[in-house]
Amino acid sequence: MDKTVKLVFQDGLEIEGKSFGAYTSAAGEVVFNTALVGYNESLTDPSYKGQIMVMTAPMIGNYGVPDDKAMIESIETWMESNKIQVTGLVVSYYADDYSHWNAIQKLGAWLEIQNIPGIYGVDTRMITKKLRDQGSTLGKIVADTDVEFYNPDLDNLVDQVSCKEVIRYNEGADVKIVLVDCGVKNNIIRCFVDRGVEVVRVPWDYDYSTLEYDGLFISNGPGDPALCVPTINNIKESLKEDKPIFGICLGNQLVSLAAGASTFKLKYGHRSHNQPVQLVGTKKCFITSQNHGFAVDDSKLPEGFKTFFTNLNDGTCEGIRHESKPFFTVQFHPEAMGGPVDTEYLFDEFIEEVKKYKSANA
Ligand SMILES: NC(=O)CC[C@H](N)C(=O)O
């Protein structure tokens, strides 16, 4: 019989449930994700560092977990990083029995190996309504020893998830992209490598101006973008040049901050696979995968920049682009994994801009 654990909120609410995964206590920001699939990808997305993820899909674990050690081209085949990044997992029904063609382990066993606690048998609908009404809040999963509440937005989490040295993928390709790793999801690297470019992955605070490259990419990542000061300062220098710049999620926020815009914390964030965004100036709408708690204030974008996409649910900024230079960034995740791939064309558009720049400056 599974042991009892509690989900405790900073406002005092305590919810009793059953333990799966590691029987241990952990604290973080409680956020909800409404995606129906993709728990392995979300759990290993470095953007979730410091967060306790509530999944509203009623059954979690039913398709198990694939081999998290399988690698292709030195990247985890089935995962978005080399480990589980969340602090804890909250689900309604945990399915211990699984069935899937490439699953090799139970979700609970995988969590336990990495000392991540899970709680099931709780009313995730009630919890989600609480978070929507009151906003994301600090919380903790408590096993047999209590822990202090922990606010991940006060920590420089990007430094904890970024690579520690320069890593090259597809070395020797004609087009070279510097990828600033703020907690990059593996599928972003796959999307570039599959398009035949070399990816030069550098730490979040690395001075990439010393490198030979043709285009710049700023990755997704955890925590408050305002804490990434070295990255913002490096991007400020890049904005003075004409080399193409692309960014995703945290990358959108960092380029916006470097350009002189500001960011703010959303009440409960966007974490789902069904967020509708409109391409500004058109009637086109795309359904996107999203996982963010901060947003760019596009009410006063700096000279030369305009809103690229807008969220059709709440009108928030979903990307910015420069009016004349090849700079564009998006708040959503065109690389998906999981979720819809409708906006993956943005990788092609960026690489086209890079090739144009490269031939014009040959
Ligand atoms: N996925 C991300 O890159 C998240 C960006 C940032 N940490 C936010 O929560 O808004």
Automatic annotation (TrEMBL):
Q: Name one GO molecular function term.
A: carbamoyl-phosphate synthase (glutamine-hydrolyzing) activity
Q: Where does L-glutamine bind?
A: S47, G221, G223, L250, Q253, N291, G293, F294
User: Part of which pathway?
Assistant: Pyrimidine metabolism; UMP biosynthesis via de novo pathway; (S)-dihydroorotate from bicarbonate: step 1/3; Amino-acid biosynthesis; L-arginine biosynthesis; carbamoyl phosphate from bicarbonate: step 1/1
Pfam families, sorted: CPSase_sm_chain, GATase
| Record-linked PROSITE patterns | GATASE_TYPE_1
Main enzyme class: ligase
Active-site residues, record numbering mapped to chain? C249, H333, E335
Quote the EC number: 6.3.5.5
Keywords for this protein: Amino-acid biosynthesis, Arginine biosynthesis, ATP-binding, Glutamine amidotransferase, Ligase, Nucleotide-binding, Pyrimidine biosynthesis
Supply the InterPro entries for this chain: Anth_synth/Amidotransfase, CarbamoylP_synth_ssu, CarbamoylP_synth_ssu_N, CarbP_synth_ssu_N_sf, Class_I_gatase-like, CPSase_GATase1, GATASE
- Per the record, what are the reactions this protein catalyses? hydrogencarbonate + L-glutamine + 2 ATP + H2O = carbamoyl phosphate + L-glutamate + 2 ADP + phosphate + 2 H(+); L-glutamine + H2O = L-glutamate + NH4(+)
| Chain spans, region CPSase | 1-176
Q: Which Gene3D superfamilies match?
A: 3.40.50.880, Carbamoyl-phosphate synthase small subunit, N-terminal domain
Sequence similarity: Belongs to the CarA family.
Q: What is this protein for, i.e. what is its function?
A: Small subunit of the glutamine-dependent carbamoyl phosphate synthetase (CPSase). CPSase catalyzes the formation of carbamoyl phosphate from the ammonia moiety of glutamine, carbonate, and phosphate donated by ATP, constituting the first step of 2 biosynthetic pathways, one leading to arginine and/or urea and the other to pyrimidine nucleotides. The small subunit (glutamine amidotransferase) binds and cleaves glutamine to supply the large subunit with the substrate ammonia.
Q: How does it assemble?
A: Composed of two chains; the small (or glutamine) chain promotes the hydrolysis of glutamine to ammonia, which is used by the large (or ammonia) chain to synthesize carbamoyl phosphate. Tetramer of heterodimers (alpha,beta)4.
Write the protein's name. Answer: Carbamoyl phosphate synthase small chain
Classification of source organism: Bacteria, Pseudomonadati, Bacteroidota, Flavobacteriia, Flavobacteriales
